Amino acid sequence: MRRVIVYIDGFNLYHAIDDLGQSHLKWLNLRALAESLLRTGEQVKLVRYFSAYATWKTDAYARHRDYVAALKAQGVETNMASFKKKPRRCFSCGAQWFGHEEKETDVNIAVQMVADALTGEVDRLILISADTDLAPPIRTIAQLAPQCEVFVATPPKRFKNCQALKPALEITAGRIAKCLLPAQVQVSATKTIARPQSYAPPP
Fold first, then answer.
1. DSSP letter string over 32-101?
2. What is the pLDDT of residues 9-64, one digit of tens each?
3. Angle of helix 105-118 versus helix 135-144 axis, rounded to 10
4. Which of 202, 10, 39 shows the shortest CA–CA distance to 124?
5. What distance separates the 2 farthest-apart alpha carbons in the chain?
6. Model confidence at 83: pLDDT above 70
7. Are 141 and 111 in contact, with CB atoms under 8 Å apart?
8. What's the CA gap between 47 and 6, in Å, rounded?
9. Residue 55 pLDDT
């Protein structure tokens, strides 16, 4: 069996789903999505999820923690980076405030992809992202580990915006709808996580 590792750019996928205006699709089983992209004779070795917690947003932070716990219960490896507080300024009116910028996620994805390819841990890499900053590691793998195939599947409605990645497939809302987590996810012997009410599917 050919070994496949799937790398998921969490916020890139999340914002693409959010733009669809179908909140129930956010309760996505990334393990099931990864397996939906397999070819005959392949097996998923790992699903690596990369994201960061927006700790200053109380409700969103709580939902994200629950979602990460639900993913771990499906066998997904989670790699959490961080946000950095950054001063902002309006050049028109001079107003100043602090914003937040996600740090290290794309670097973490890039390093892990190259490391896995060079150490012979994988036969095919599937990257779910439309972030063109990930084009350099894809080129590096092609040069140094040409036996390892890199397959890019873009989030919904992002295919045309990331041609530098040479995407092979666009993940559709229909595919996502077939890969949702159940309403209740058992995350340990004593704990169950409920799907957020705002993510309930339409009647």
1. HHHHHTPPTTEEEEEEEEEEE--TTSHHHHHHHHHHHHHHHHTT-EEEEEEEEEEEEE-TTT--EEEEEE
2. 999 999 999 999 999 999 999 999 999 999 999 999 999 999 999 877 889 899 99
3. 10
4. 39
5. 60
6. no
7. no
8. 5
9. 77
